[in-house]
Amino acid sequence: MKFRSLRPAEAIRTNALIVPVFSDAPTIPAALPRAVRATTLRVLKAMAGTRRLYGVTTHYRGTAPERLILVGAGRHAELTPERLRNVTAAGVRSLWRAAEGVRTGGAAASPPEVRRIAVVVDEGLGNERAVEATVQGAIYAMWRPETHRSRPEPLPAISTVGLVASAVPAAAIRRGEAIGEAVNFARRLANEPANLMTPTNVADEARSLAKAAGLGCEVLDEKRCRALGMHSFLSVAQGSHQPPRLVVLRYHGRAGKGHDAAARPGRSAGAYDLALVGKGITFDSGGISIKPAEGMHRLKVDMTGAASVIGTMGAVARLRPAANILGVALLTENLPGGGATKPGDVFTSMSGKTVEVINTDAEGRLVLVDGLTYAQREGATRVVDIATLTGAIHIALGDHYSGLFGKPEPFVAHVRAVSAEAGDRFWPMPLSDEYREEIRSDIADIRNSAGKFGGASKAAAFLDAVVEVGVEWAHLDIASQDWSDRDQPHSPKGPQGPGVRTLIALALEAPGPV
User: Fold this and answer.
1) Which residues are catalytic?
2) Fewer CB within 10 Å: N-end or C-end of the chain?
3) What's the rounded mean pLDDT across residues 124-133?
4) CB under 8 Å, gap of 24 or more: what pairs does 416-423 form?
């Protein structure tokens, strides 16, 4: 699918034209051809439902464009990049059901295949932001979850998306493509069943992406992880026959020696401007502390954090910021096999801190503490981890926000501001000494569970125990938004890919001021 600039007069030579319609701005863009504007006004008058936010009305014409797709965009005064992304995605997704319409004249028919479409870009947000958001929305709409049906649901065969705007900057298209495809990458990996997306298979996906993007890539096996002292991470893998993997992706935009692993700078403070650490539990049964059967099939998405980091690193390589970025993805299953970790077991983490395992279903933090230590020892001075970490964050925030923790406070505030601009919704959560005190163990340094109340903050306190002095750190708990049970404007139900846009935005600004 290619994006290009399209003059308004050229919009009539497409298979479909998507037009955002605002409830407080009833006029149709004057730049559109007169015949298209007249049809649009007539359809709006007859079908007022289009005024509903993300409501879609498709009108089949006897002449090009064969489809006129009107999408409710709400109040123009409330327009945001996220709304513009969703409007575009809703319009493109309506083409999934293209055969449901009727042609002008009332005769039921199966409309011709859609290959060339056009989107009217509302530039109220500024030209570059609007174009980038529109491109992202179109890409989000081209992902479907039914990949393993014997007859998969078809996607529209769109080859070209024309952007009707005063200008279509190539840089805005490039950013929109990189970000949109990174989100879809994370969705795709998280959507795969656990028998087909094992730790080894995820590592293979990372290798393929790194090769295509020009990233340095290392995959550490169990032996190498053990030599590094990553016993907390490895404790989670003990019950599975699938071997664990640690994926390390390296991008060097200011090293002056290329992007391959051999050219990376020395492992000293400041070697990386930003490190991204992702939890990758490719299936989570809870281990010995086994989960209820209901809904367990969804725990294939417990590797969303790792998928997000890998997808982000691919986007970073395409967008080439002048910074050094490290990506770390920790991959394992959490199963109740004969060798599985037992409640009460004690392990030594890579940081040297000893960990008492109270609940084997609190495994994500056991994995992440070693990933955080690894990133810091590689010289990262700013670290962001992303994980489907706690059900507690879902209880606290519902489906509409993810949790944000970290230190120091100015950096946390900065991450929140960046995420809002990127289109993600993170809410700052408390992380104080009281939570740190609660995760102290009677027989080791820290324990991985301390009761259900305040569970998300206690999990963050556990991670904080290995964050070194002077390191800026943010923890993104996305367990409230990684999966949706209902269709969203930009996505069908299933994996959603939250946080990817925030990670990319942080990478593009690094090293940035706080």
Assistant:
1) 291, 365
2) C
3) 95
4) 418/502, 418/505, 418/506, 418/509, 419/499, 419/501, 419/502, 419/505, 421/81, 421/505, 422/501, 422/502, 422/504, 422/505, 423/80, 423/81, 423/82, 423/85, 423/133, 423/501
